[in-house]
Amino acid sequence: MKEFVELIKPMLPLYLFIGALYLIFLIYCIRDILKSNTMSRKSKVIWIIFVIVIQVIGPIIYLVIGKKETNEKLT
């Protein structure tokens, strides 16, 4: 265990930075889903579960597909 701690110690600031960026990205996606006026409640729940469970790829898929669907409904 001590070897692992010594191995990770130099990269810890980078890991914390990447983790903070991911958390901000996740919060942005969830907030965007909740604020959407064009999605039904069921769609919102499904998208939120999808974004949380499929961790890194889920938010990206939401921004590519989910935002596109909501924008199409507005026009």
In words, what does this structure look like?
The chain is 83% helix and 0% strand. The chain is built from four helices and no strands. The chain has helices spanning 2-8, 12-35, 41-53, 57-74. α2 (12-35) packs antiparallel against α3 and α3 (41-53) packs antiparallel against α4 (57-74). The longest helix is centred in the N-terminal third of the chain and has 24 residues, at 12-35. The N and C termini lie far apart (56 Å).
Summarize the structure.
This protein has 75 residues and is mostly helical.
Order of helices and strands: HHHH
Taking the alpha carbons of the first and last residues, their distance comes to: 56 Å
Count of DSSP strands: 0
Q: Radius of gyration, Cα only, in angstroms?
A: 17 Å
What's the average pLDDT? Answer: 87
Strand percentage: under 5%
Low-confidence stretches: none
Main sheet? none
What's the number of helices? 4
Shape: elongated
| Secondary structure: helix percent | over 70%
Helix and strand content put the structural class at mainly alpha
